[in-house]
Amino acid sequence: MIPTRASYRDIPLYSPAKKPCRVDLSDNTNLFGTPPAAERVLRGASLRAVTHYPAGYSPDLRRAVAAYAGVTPEAVATGCGSDGLIDCAIRAFLEPGEVLAFQDPTFVMVPLYSKMNGVKAAPVPLRPEADFDLDVDGLVATGAKVIYLCSPNNPTGTALSRAAVERVVEKAPGIVIIDEAYADFASGPGFIDLARTRPNVLVTRTFSKAYGMAGMRVGWAVGSPRLVAEVEKARGPYMLTALAEAMAVAVLTEDQDWVKARAREAVENRERLRAELVALGLKPLPSEGNFLMVPLPGAPKVAERMRERDVNVRAFQGLTGVGDALRIGSGPWPLLEAALAALRESMQ
Question: Signal peptide: which range, if any (predicted)?
Fold first, then answer.
């Protein structure tokens, strides 16, 4: 018999239902191509980046993120995607049995990280009647030592109000993690300023979405140097390759115009997609991300029929405050046209 942790027995593997499809709009990545600077670094990489360990965590990447975020390098942690840093933060600030509170629905990995780290999950429903804003009092009432927020939220696409986030930060008894994986698509400025000015705020971002580097798995977090030092303890060594770090530095310092242009196109196409979905009688939720959440009874079956037509979207069943729904990523318009055609056929 193989010894296993009892607390792990009911943890499912993260494995979204997926088969190879010609059009894949299921994971909200950048479908507009590779950033030019990243491609240049990749093509010019030396074998040393393969045969040698990276030199710890790249000071060049920390400096580049610090300059971008308006903080000192000591206020920056880098890691294997922003999700990896969120996992590290949960591990760093919570003992087994302590409480992690989070908005519901939100990023699917957060309740899994709570189980993996032996902490108690306290999901607090968002408020559909208030554009899916936070239940501030509900979050604070959990007494959680760590509160996780996500804005723009995955999977709903909705943004949290500034007033609600600031109230959570003010009232929270401990750390507030703000996941901004989709901030590059949002119309507002985000919450990095809170990480600069509040000692209990950690903001995470990723190179996997707008920056077109999902396969390289690079993320970053900013907060007070004291918070960041604790996250780094939980992170461990060598979670980033030298090549991924070099590509991230190049994109962050050289390709901002490219990233912003692709993000604008994703948002423009998202709104074109919204209009087409409304014409079909559907009611997509407001979105500040590069995707739309579309409530639709029987969404899993519809998604299955769309996959038969070579189009992959993400289906959710019984989502809190939403019900069954499809999450459709944005991208080049021809891909969205193909998705619309498959959806029309699959809804018949």
Answer: none
